């Protein structure tokens, strides 16, 4: 928090020096607003963890994966421009799965049965969300994470057409599920 405050203060001071030099002191209020915006933007991103991106070959292999016998494949993605630099923490059945910025996706295998996905956006004003679902052996499941336009509520939307969803994912970077290895980015 101190670091973000100092950066915001530096933006205000540097901008103020330029404006005083140009004799444009009427813009000082604008600089204060800019400094405050920089501070709050940095605060929202301060909960981001370093992500481990999967290389292109592994991403393609994941998207074309055959479902292991007696298991299901789960893909979770996030896209859109709202808050795209802020990582959303995703967990599966109470265990951390990945942190996804936009646009990113992750993939994992599941046993059949009832499961719970949860997402929160750290210290932001967004309301956390949960989704309960049933996984069947041999099933491919794709969830999109969304942010409500007016209520800041996070949600999961299950994609009805998995082949179209996987096509969309083929254009996104993939993040390794926690505990998996990949190429750091």
Structure explained in plain terms:
With about 180 residues, the protein is α+β, with helices and mostly antiparallel strands. The chain folds into 2 domains: about 1-45; about 50-185, Carboxypeptidase-like, regulatory domain (Immunoglobulin-like, Sandwich). The chain has helices at about 1-20, 30-45, 55-65, 160-170; strands at about 50-55, 70-80, 90, 95-100, 105-110, 115-120, 130-135, 140-145, 155-160, 185. The strands form 3 sheets. The protein has a 4-stranded mixed beta sheet with strand order 5-2-8-9, covered by helices on one side. Strand 8 (about 140-145) and strand 9 form a beta hairpin. Helix 1 packs antiparallel against helix 2.
Q: What features would you highlight for this structure?
A:
185 residues; Immunoglobulin-like; four-stranded mixed sheet; elongated
């Amino acid at each position: 928090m101190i670091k973000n405050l100092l950066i915001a203060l530096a933006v205000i001071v540097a901008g103020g020096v330029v404006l005083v030099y140009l004799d444009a002191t009427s813009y000082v209020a604008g600089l204060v607003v800019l400094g405050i915006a920089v501070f709050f933007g940095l605060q929202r991103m301060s909960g981001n963890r370093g992500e481990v991106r999967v290389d292109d070959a592994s991403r393609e292999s994941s998207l074309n994966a055959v479902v292991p016998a007696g298991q299901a494949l789960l893909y979770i993605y996030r896209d859109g421009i709202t808050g795209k630099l802020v990582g959303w923490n995703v967990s599966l059945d109470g265990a951390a799965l990945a942190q996804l910025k936009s646009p990113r996706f992750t993939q994992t295998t599941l046993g059949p049965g009832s499961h719970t996905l949860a997402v929160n956006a750290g210290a932001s004003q967004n309301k956390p969300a949960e989704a309960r679902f049933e996984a069947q052996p041999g099933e491919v499941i794709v969830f999109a994470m969304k942010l409500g336009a007016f209520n800041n509520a996070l949600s999961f939307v299950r994609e009805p057409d998995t082949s179209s969803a996987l096509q969309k994912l083929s254009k996104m970077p993939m993040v390794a599920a926690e505990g998996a290895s990949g190429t750091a980015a």
